[in-house]
Structure formats: C-alpha cells, structure tokens
Write a structure and sequence with these properties.
Shape: globular
Helix content: 25-40%
Order of helices and strands: HEEEHEHEEH
Number of helices: 4
Low-confidence stretches: none
Largest sheet: 6 strands, mixed
Strand content: 25-35%
Length: about 140
Amino acid sequence: MEAIWEKLYEAARAVRRERKISDYVEAGCVSAAVLSEQGNIYTGVCIDTCSTLGICAERNALFNMITNGEDRLSKVLCIMHDGKAGGAPCGACREFMVQLAGGDCGGIEIMMDYEAGTVMTLAELTPEWWIQKGEKR
C-alpha cells in the first residue's frame, strides 16, 4: 500500500472524536481525509443534526479543500462510525465528487478497506452516473 494512504489514515484518525455539541447536533463519529492533486491533505468530520442540515465527513473535507483554494481531488479515505477505515461514500458525496471532477473520475481513488488495502476509483463506484454518459473514463 502506498505510504500516502497511511498519512490519510493518520490525518482522519486525528480529527475523529465523537462528541455531542448540543441536544440537536453531534459530530465526529465519522472522519475523512482527502488528498488534493497538489498533494495537500484536508480533513473533515460528519456533523449530524436532528434535521437534514448535517454533512458527511467526506464532503466536509472537500469543502475544507475548496476553502483553502484547491478544487482537484486525488484520494479519499474515511474512518467509519465503527472505527474501521474505508468504505464507499454515500450517494450525495459521490455526486459532489463526480461534479467536482467534471465527470473525469477515473483518477480519483477511494479507500474501500484500509486493512485489506482495497482501493476503487470513483468511476468504478459510479459506472452509470448521469454526468459521465458518453464520456471516456
């Protein structure tokens, strides 16, 4: 496994801290780290609310990347609520990543299972996405 995955894992682990913020908001049970094409790591945690105003860790990390002036994604790793690293992003996160990439998803890698070293591309996870219709991957 590439050493960068270890760095992403450590970055995501460093921000994962489950906590109750108020009677209506909890945060940190899932964390994520993304690697930009420029080689920088950005992190985020999930924020769960009693309504639909929450956000997934992956999108939070991507928003952090965008806030810091970057918009090209290379790798994504998350640590799930059970403490295991890896897993497929939800549909909303996949949709955002596909749109961010402009449909060119073949080079974006997602860590599916950290212990086994299983990685898939975003294109493999979204084989029939609407934005990719008719485009080469």
